What does this fold into?
Amino acid sequence: MRRRMLARTLVGFTAVIGTAAGSLAGATAGFAASDQVHKPVVAVRAAAPNAVVNLGLNTTQAKGFQRWLAANWQYTDSIDGQLGPNSWKAEQRHLKAYWNYTGAIDGIVGGGTVSALQRFLKNNGWGYTGPIDGVAGSGTQAAFATFANWCVANY
It folds into this structure.
């Protein structure tokens, strides 16, 4: 009788362990798949025409930048801290005038826009020391934030 009871217990326990292991294996694969989908992108690729691309600026910094654009580069949209296409069109006018931006004034933040922004940030003492490579990495974002902080204080 004891053997039967022990056998039943072991069979039941084995079934529970097997089911749990299968569930964990499925959960692990599910987590791995979702982790791959949500990895942040370091490089900025051309953003869609209606995209907001703050390049690391917080709302206050972005508003300061927009006030500077309004004062100097015909930005007429709202000062909302969301750098959308109209903000970037105004910045592209600035970059085209002085910083060798050769692309269209389309409000799309691509490599050409970022390269010209890097030239501006590097040559005007805003702290950018990296290569002019069109990639808005941490150095570009930090220098852009320094410039935006100046905009907040002055506009």
